[in-house]
Write a structure and sequence with these properties.
Number of strands: 20
Structural class: alpha+beta
Order of helices and strands: EHEEHEEHEEEHEEHEEEHEHHEEEEEE
Shape: globular
Helix content: 10-25%
Radius of gyration: 21 Å
CATH superfamily of the domain at 2-48 and 139-233: Probable tRNA modification gtpase trme, domain 1
Number of helices: 8
Oligomer: single chain
Distance between the termini: 40 Å
Amino acid sequence: MRQTVFYNTHLSMGGKMVPFAGYEMPVEFSGVKNEHNNVRNHVGVFDVSHMGEIKVTGPDAAKFVQHVTSNDVQQLVPGKIQYSCFPNGRGGIVDDLLVYMFSENHYLLVVNASNIEKDYDWLVGHQMDGAEVINESYLVSQLAVQGPDAGKVIQKITDTQLSEVPYFHFVEGNIGPVESVLISNTGYTGAGGFELYMSNADGPKVFNAVMDAGKEFNIAPAGLEARDTLRLEMGLCLYGNDIDETTSPLEAGLGWITKFVDGNDFIDRQYLEKQKEQGIKRRLAGFELQEKGIARNGYPLFSADGAPIGEVTSGTMSPFTGKSIGMGYLEVPFHKKDTEILIGIRNKKLKAKVVRPPFIDKT
């Protein structure tokens, strides 16, 4: 098992470590509910150094990234970020990712921790002349500083004017004593904030600077479990649960990152265009339980009259709202808002209602 540069710090702060994606990672510190609500109300820090960073450079870098990702890279400009996915050539998804554009000849692809080697091999397998693919995942550390006070914390320790960095944009600047940090206005929590990329050697200095600056804002570390409950409250897909090699981006509600535009000849374009024209047969949808219980991955979903219509992909008790929420694939048209469904939990079928994520009021 690998360890991030923050491993000993996690232990010293009471982190409960578990194996995850080949790393020993903190699943929680003070408890998922405390960590979750601290991020929603104040600011929390996640170690996300296990995520993958794959660099693409060369005169045909843009052409290559356009081919292997579903979104329209032509819409990017230097300093802008795009959410996208790698179609797998069979109508499914290799991975979802963020595409960072530095220039026409330089992109950074940030991929899921559990898929680093798979994604790298996929990219190398489709590599074209004029585009070099370099896996830098094990050289980079990353912290996600998330919550409504995250910007206030980071602004104290950077010369960068964060108000001038729009959502899904990035700059390179200092964090405390560290001069070269990629500061990204992104995150996986729906609570606002920034993700910071740095060399492994600089990781501890950046972490200490962030924690010192955040004391007045009730800053605290958060683990994997809170990261999962936060993303689920926002209805964000988790690879391996809500999307995988068998789910199409259209079925997953990711049509907005699947661009059928001129100049975007991406893998699976013809298949997905045909699927869009013919209509999908199932759709990822959110739901809230109307009875006491928690839906878990793999639990069956039924229509109100008891016919099987799908399966749960993610579920939890929302720490922020106290409601039991989840997502799952439902046969069309049972995915429509306010449809009454049943969830098979142990020997019971509990009532639930289809809702449209996010599960919390973003305002």
